[in-house]
Description:
This protein has 660 residues and is α+β, with helices and mostly antiparallel strands. It has five domains: 4-103, Rossmann fold; 132-201, ATP-grasp fold, A domain (Dna Ligase, domain 1); 334-454, D-amino Acid Aminotransferase, Chain A, domain 1 (2-Layer Sandwich); 458-476 and 484-575, Glycoprotein, Type 4 Pilin (2-Layer Sandwich), CATH 3.30.700.30; 584-656, CATH 2.40.50.100. The protein is built from 17 helices and 39 strands.
Amino acid sequence: MFGTVLVANRGEIALRVIHTLRAMGIRSAAVYSDADLDAPHVGAADVAIRLGPAAAAASYLSIDRVVAAALATGAEAIHPGYGFLSENAAFATACARAGITFIGPPAGAIEAMGDKIRAKQTVAAAGVPVVPGSDGAGLTDAELARAVARIGYPVLLKPSAGGGGKGMREVHRPDALADALASARRAARGAFGDDTLLVERLVTTPRHIEIQVLADTQGHVIHIGERECSLQRRHQKILEEAPSPLLTPAQRAAMGAAACAAARACGYTGAGTVEFIVAGDRPDDWFFMEMNTRLQVEHPVTEEITGLDLVELQLRVAAGEPLPLTQDDVVLRGHAVEVRVYAEDPAAGFLPTGGRVLALREPRGLPGIRVDSGIAEGTVVGSDYDPLLAKIIAYGADRGEAFQRLDAALGRTVLLGLGTNVAFLRALLGDPDVQAGNLDTGLVGRRIAELAAAGLPDDVVGVATGVALLDLEPPGPIVDPFDVPGGWRLGEPAWTTRRVLVPGHEPVEVRSRGRAADAELVIGEGPPVRTRTTADHLHTHDGVTRRYAVARGDDGVLWVSRDGRSWAIREQEALEAAAEEATGVGGPVLSPMPGTVTVVEVVEGQRVAAGQKLLAVEAMKMEHVLTAPVDGTVRGLRARPGATVARDTVLLVVAADREA
């Protein structure tokens, strides 16, 4: 067995691998970029080596720097985690040349399965069903269009060189094909350096089911059950569970056998995942989609129902040991479900967010709950890397118990300082179709409006007002009642009026009088209510008492959380409100997220129509198209392709046409 293993990754997966290395008595080496100097995985490892600047290409994606770091630490092996270099055949080859074991499959298997066109050809030859689609590599737009005409709409465009949903485009009409091809090629070129595309028939109401396989260097290949990964947004998974509520034992055995055949066809070793697309109304109608030649993000649910440590098995296979179990030894017990906590705004189309983690309480220690996390209080979440922050996994004797435990864990989760999808995940878990197991990959898209709907409860406005009153109260004994911001006057106390702003909601006017310990509030047009707010954020609102998590950022925004939901609250100054009311239509077009400008389709002085595409910004695998808010003229164009922009950066201005 290895003495030292370098983990060529960051965040929660780096910590996950380090955990197993420590349990096996193996020395761990970490790598980090300048942005991750204070990241938790750096402190968790036995030794950590700086790679370079924050940009992934200069750090985590630099083969030369990662290999040099391994040699500097004396590591005999490298675990790539997932993402970054985990499915890079050139990296596996470079490790071999340096005399370092790559903890993953041979480079040839990565190449065979990494190219979707070649992968389909390889598994089809082994008798595995594949989705009808285009044949051949390097097809032009015209050739792809002819393939679409042969297959028929709807279709799915997919980059051949990569996975993770990046660059995938659904096309439902002929008039949308040209734009989809251009967008898919641009995304594929940016993500993988290769804009080769293939086209497949789009299976309607599909379910995404994947089989976990294990293979050793002695020729043994087994599968250890499936994971249901149908709940997705933008082709990225949100919730995964094992086993699938759809499959029968016979269907599981058939898909498992096909997955093992696919692994044998490419000479696979280690832990891998064969992904299938399944017709939701016809579970016997399933097709090979792709093979992920690495550990999956969702591997914990398989670990929970099998009792196996997949990272340990990867290490042992890479060290030349045979698999310690056969197919007959595999037993699935209970049910497990995982959700991914992302830095994103579901109500804004899952756009990435960012910021400093001001407060963090993860639901560790609860029955049946596991937390795989890569953040800590003080962590700065930027746009350089994937927005995945943590995973919360629940295990139960059955699906109902697992779901109930997970919902309770999410309700106890506190993450303040940036927008997350925690509240959305609770809503998703409670959806009737999700509860019943009636899943498909389009469910989230169809329900996004209701799932992402987030009201602004009066008690949240109340606790924010109570905190504001506490902040204004003087320390120590109070002698003069005029020192207390409670509106004290001879006779009846006076009212103080505030205007509260919360993203995604209309401004709320709040009138208050009294002290934080005993205040009367009028919120909007509502009736007066009595409130009490303590220094440890216990708040009583109209007779109901709850404890809240509260944190204030450097920008003055107050973050308030309860029951897994959080709100960013800011008090609006009077002058700001007056300026807002005076603003006309049109105006600046702002970047909705931190990212990179990928394309600019207008020039200074150009006339544009409302809804016309202006430019696109990409961040964390996501491209967002910005359009003209009104008819007008482009002024102050600052955006340039390739430029890095922060959230709310002014990219250009659309000067609205004057009314006739």
